[in-house]
Amino acid sequence: MNKTKLFSEIKLLANISSFSKHEQLIQGIINALNQKIIARGDILPSVNEMIRELGFAKETIGKAYKELIARGIVESKNRKGYFVATDDTEQHLKVCLLIYAFDTFQETFYQNFRNHLGPNVQVDVFFHHNNLTVFESIINSNKGQYGMYVIAPIDSPEAINILEKLPMDKFLMVDRYVEMKEPYSYIVQEFRQSSYNAFVKLAPRIKEFSEFVFFFRPNSAEPNDILISFEQFIKDYKINGVIKSEYHSGSIAPDKVYFTIHNLELWEILKDTKVRGLKVGHDLGILSHNDDNVKEIIFDGITTFSVDFAEMGIRAAEFVLTKVPVKHVMENKLIQRNSL
């Protein structure tokens, strides 16, 4: 990298009255990239070098570098300085997306989020799998490296403390809701009332079977509000309900309604019904959480209650693009099909 040419490129912009000093620095680095004066992987001048060569204030240089980091054009490495991260000078923003895992409904969220942002926004996807150690490591290692953080949180005091260290004007909570001290934006699901409402609508069908079985794993990522709703429902409607921690392969039985949150568990249940020659929706009922295209098709349709993850992805992208604060709670809605 030719630092002399880089500084010259920045100084040329001083004659353009519409540019502030921090804009001169940003545009100068972008111009230098476009002219191949600097390239991806090059280390940029330190703050002190910039002060000596340009006479800019430390705060001005820091502001410019932070904006270039937010756009993903520059990255900061502890104790090593600032580096050129990409040759794509059209890139307007770099987003950190941290979610639970890449299930089919999460993919629906991601695809709509990604598509709505457009081509000039970089999205890096990370998964925490409801593991606090992984969650903390990802956030700490990426703090200050992105212009926006879109995060599905873990519901624990430790996770909340980690999140509260992020800049709230660059943070969006998605999927699950946890309460934090400072004002923040969120687009999340509501589980308790909407789950109860779904059970109530299904009550006549559920009563046609002898037992309502809910597979729920305590101390997991599964929403506890759904468990509370299930327990309230079977009490209010005098349903013979049972809660089990997991489905055991081969244990399928007729005259029951099976409800699971996990897709892998759902596939195992459906496989066993086929092996046993049982007819879904007639010999037994099946209810699933979180809808996707596959559930609309298999076994002539699986009954679900779910939020619209495509809508959630689009709403999240709108926040990233506009930075207009949002507080939106999405209701899980019943989608009744053949299985129940």
From TrEMBL:
Gene3D superfamilies: 3.40.50.2300, Winged helix-like DNA-binding domain superfamily/Winged helix DNA-binding domain. It comes from the Bacteria. One of its GO terms (molecular function) is DNA binding. InterPro entries: Peripla_BP_I (IPR028082), Tscrpt_reg_HTH_GntR (IPR000524), WH-like_DNA-bd_sf (IPR036388), WH_DNA-bd_sf (IPR036390). Keywords: DNA-binding, Transcription, Transcription regulation. Residues 19-87 form the HTH gntR-type domain. This is GntR family transcriptional regulator.
